[in-house]
Each structure stands twice: as structure tokens, then as C-alpha cells.
Amino acid sequence: MTAGVREPRAALETGVWGVVATPFTDDASSVDEPSLARLVQFSQTAGVRGLTVLGVFGEAASLTEQERERTLRVVVENTELPIVVGITSLDTGEVIREIQSAMAMTGPRFRAAMVQVNSADADEVARHLEAIVAATDVPVVLQDYPRASGVNISAEGLQTVLHAVPAIVAVKAEAPPTSPAVARILSGGTTASVFGGLGGQGLLDELVSGAAGAMTGFSFPEGLVRTIDAWHEGGFAAASHALLPYLPLINFEQQVGIALGIRKELLRRRGLITSAAVRSPATPFPAALSAHAAHHLELVAELQEA
């Protein structure tokens, strides 16, 4: 190895990395720690590979620094799973500070920092990540989620970044259409894992394109786990059969603008959290969809029993 050049890190492990919602009290004034503990414990029993905490759907941007720290502490205290920590800022210095704080909270359970693409310019993204790694020496999950970051980068640009920054252990590909994006990213010969997100909507096609699994939230994470297990055991047909009971619910849950509110309400109805409250700018669960949610949950229960 040439002096000063870092070796690639081990790719992020395949499977489902569950994105953890942050439960709030009814008035959303504080984090509901008992609900968070219950949700995390359930995620472990559902068979996920690890947890992604303080992601976009964890409403990390709405949390105070103290709430973020306490959220990480509750997660660490209630699961043995490895943790990917979401970083909210696009500013290099602030990202470094957030990562250092997260590492202090999670200790040996810290697996990687999930950092958002901060520019359409691949060279600028690479410089950003290189500065972060130089300061923290952490593995990086690079999140390409234009809806949250407001930044659009090409798959070819992501390939450039991956070759320039060997500390990247995974890409979270959430720029639709995701399945061709996964294929193009992987065609560059990266050693990093590529994961789909977006609630599992494109999971089957992402797996066909070479995805390592899903890094996402869903009110029935066990369904995504069964699908990926089936994929490894029996390919597309087996995975399709495993996912079929959950597809209507996935589509219902992933409605643009209200997806988080729906997911929290479904988690509440499953008894995993006490309140479906969200913080601005998220939109609360629309009361007009109450019967719809009930029908979807009944259908999943029936198909799981069949």
C-alpha cells in the first residue's frame, strides 16, 4: 500500500438495516424513551442486521443535541445490534462534530456514520468525505437521498466518489429510479455494499440489480427480513412470494408527504410506540386514512396466518 493511502474498509454487512423512528410524547415535546426502548428491542427480534439511528425518518433534524445524545444512549442500552448513526448536517465541520458526539455515545457499537451527499460535484463530495475521515477515521455510509438533501448527483458521480474514498463501506441509494441506480453504481467495481431504501418499495428489483439488502424503515421490518432471506435461499420467485403479503402496506405507508406519519401510526397500532406524534415539518397521520390503515393491518395479519 502506498504511504498515505488508506485500504478499503470491510463492506457493510448484507441484510436489513432498520431505520429507527424516534417516538415522541403526545404533544411531541420530548422523546418517549420507553417507546423507543420497546421499538428497538422489537427490531432486534425481527431479525434486522443492524439499526440506523437518527436518520431522516428518525426526525433527527428536529431533535436538540441533548435529545440526539439521549436517543443514542437509549438505543445502545436496549439492543446488542451494531449501529449506523445518521448525520444531519451537510457542512464538513458540523458533520465531524456530530460524528465525534455519536461515537462518544455509542462506543464499540458504532458501525458507521451515514453522511449525505452534499454536492452534485463528485470531487467536492470526495473532499468533504476525505476531511471527515481524516478527522474521525470512521467508516462511511454515503446516503444519496435528494428529497432530503436537495442535492442530485449522477450514478457515475457516485462511482467517482467511491473510488476516491475507500472509507465508504456502503451507499444508500434513494434517488429514484433506484434499481437502475444500484446497477450503475455497482458496475464501477466498488467493494462497498449498496442498499435500497424508500420503505422497501423497490426491494425486489434492487436485489436483482445487486443490492446487498435494504436500509430503511417499515412498520413490519420482519417482512423485509423474510424477503431478503428468501432471496438468498430461492431467488426472485421466493423473494416475491415472501414480500407479497406486505406490498399493499408498503405502498400505503410510502405516500409522499405523509409517509412518516403513517408509519408512526402503524407502529402505534402494533403496540410498539405509544404515540404517533411527529414534529414539524413532518405531517401527522391523516385521520381520514384511519379505516385504510385498519384494512391494511387486517390484510397483513390474514396473509401472515395463511
As for the number of domains, it is: 1
What is the CATH class? Answer: Alpha Beta
Percentage of residues assigned to helices: 40-55%
Kindly, what is the distance between the CA atoms of the first and last residues, rounded to a whole number of angstroms?
56 Å
Arithmetic mean pLDDT: 95
State the low-pLDDT regions, or none.
Answer: 1-5
Largest sheet, strands/sense/barrel: 8 strands, parallel, barrel
Using only C-alpha atoms, the radius of gyration works out to: 18 Å
Figure out the total of helices.
Answer: 12
Structural class: alpha/beta
Order of helices and strands: EHEHEHEHEHHEHEHEHHHH
Level-2 CATH architecture:
Alpha-Beta Barrel
Report the strand count: 8
Q: Which range does the strand content fall in?
A: 5-15%
Determine the CATH topology. TIM Barrel
Q: Which strand order do you get reading across the main beta sheet?
A: 1-2-3-4-5-6-7-8
Question: Could you explain the architecture of this structure?
Answer:
With 306 residues, this protein is of the alpha/beta class. It is built from twelve helices and eight strands. Helix 2 packs parallel to helix 3, helix 4 packs parallel to helix 6 and helix 6 packs parallel to helix 7.
In short:
With about 300 residues, the chain is of the alpha/beta class.
Structural features:
306 residues, alpha/beta, TIM Barrel, eight-stranded parallel beta barrel, 8 strands, disordered N terminus
